[in-house]
Design a protein that fits this description.
mainly alpha; 5 helices; 0% strand
Length: 185
């Protein structure tokens, strides 16, 4: 009788772990992920040229999803990063009220940058995939090298002709000047 109870107890323990794991996966695995509203622009208490430029660049990318607008947004991030670096330097080099003011601006800009990075990343994630494929050069490596060498030889030949023409023209002009200088008038 004890072995029967023991078997039941062991079976209950063995079933408990899979049940707990399943419930845990269902409870946490189905968690709703937060979404980013791409139309809502983050705000900052510190308005600068860089924050305005970044916000506008991301707005353009959200509406167009073009590579040009993505590059413009990346450039605007870099410019804002430059402003943030300047404020970090100012915080490190100053004290008192100036330091407190710079630290406040720094915190505002860093927070704004983080919010805009989230918005930009979400916009990139929702961008339609490009269906165009770049043209592939199907020539062999030897053919590509041969073509490159032919172009280089042609360029060298053109440069040599131009140099020869310039030297000939220079010699002719020098000869004319010598002739003019020695001719009695």
């Amino acid at each position: 009788m004890t072995s029967g109870l023991r078997f039941t107890f062991i079976m209950k323990k063995q079933l408990a772990l899979p049940i707990v794991l399943t419930v845990g996966l269902l409870a946490f695995g189905c968690e709703k992920k937060p979404t980013v509203d791409l139309t809502v622009k983050p705000t900052t208490a510190t308005k600068t040229f860089e924050t305005s430029r970044l916000g506008n660049a991301i707005d353009r990318y959200v509406s167009s999803h073009s590579a040009v607008d993505a590059a413009d947004a990346n450039k605007a991030f870099a410019e804002l990063d430059g402003e943030i670096a300047e404020l970090q330097e100012r915080v490190a080099k100053t004290d008192g009220d100036d330091r407190a003011e710079a630290a406040g601006k720094l915190a505002n800009l860093q927070s704004y940058r983080t919010k805009e990075q989230v918005r930009f990343s979400a916009a990139k994630a929702t961008a339609p995939m490009s269906t165009s494929t770049p043209e592939t050069d199907v020539r062999s490596g030897a053919e590509k090298v041969g073509d490159s060498l032919n172009r280089a030889a042609s360029n060298v030949g053109d440069a040599a002709k131009d140099l020869g023409h310039s030297i000939g023209q220079g010699i002719e002009n020098t000869g004319d000047k010598i002739k003019d200088a020695t001719d009695p008038k």
